Amino acid sequence: MGKADTHESDVSFIRALAELLQENDLTELEVKREYGDEGRLNVRVSRAAPPAPVQQHVAPAPAAPATPQAPATPQQAATPTADPASHPGAVTSPMVGTVYLQGEPGSPPFVSTGDSVKEGDTLLIIEAMKTMNQIPAPRSGTVKRILVEDGGPVEYGAPLMIIE
């Protein structure tokens, strides 16, 4: 009976940690608990989508807080952050680095929202360890959203843009 109670309290504890992560806009949280000789619990909760590189396309959601809907607004704002990575048209980063939307400063961006692209077209550049890596379009389609900012950091697997 003691182990079942501990298991249920651990599940509740992990859920509370996940809520803390979401509410405080954290990317990672790690906790280690010791239960004496009975055992221990090591928990690491993290989110894949970093909050910094989200572009201005998400700005209208936070700009619409109405007094009666104030509690619902943070949940609505969290949904677009989690949504792009699971979108079927998401193009994700193959590496960690710095994103550049154009070939050199002052030149036009490789792609803009609404542009049609063909498979293999350069979408952007990710600089990793002083090497400029051109990121090609994995499929043909239309650029629906650009989810990163020029000069911003990007993590492996982070969504870069949506192509449908």
Automatic annotation (TrEMBL):
Residues 54-85 have a biased composition (Low complexity). One of its GO terms (biological process) is fatty acid biosynthetic process. Gene3D superfamilies: 2.40.50.100. Residues 50-93 are annotated as: Disordered. Keywords: Biotin, Fatty acid biosynthesis, Fatty acid metabolism, Lipid biosynthesis, Lipid metabolism. Pathway: Lipid metabolism; fatty acid biosynthesis. SUPFAM superfamilies: Single hybrid motif (SSF51230). It comes from the Bacteria. Residues 88-164 form the Lipoyl-binding domain. The keyword Lipid biosynthesis applies. GO terms for molecular function: acetyl-CoA carboxylase activity. GO terms for cellular component: acetyl-CoA carboxylase complex. The keyword Lipid metabolism applies. This protein is a component of the acetyl coenzyme A carboxylase complex; first, biotin carboxylase catalyzes the carboxylation of the carrier protein and then the transcarboxylase transfers the carboxyl group to form malonyl-CoA. This is Biotin carboxyl carrier protein of acetyl-CoA carboxylase. It comes from Wenxinia saemankumensis. The lineage of its organism: Bacteria, Pseudomonadati, Pseudomonadota, Alphaproteobacteria, Rhodobacterales.
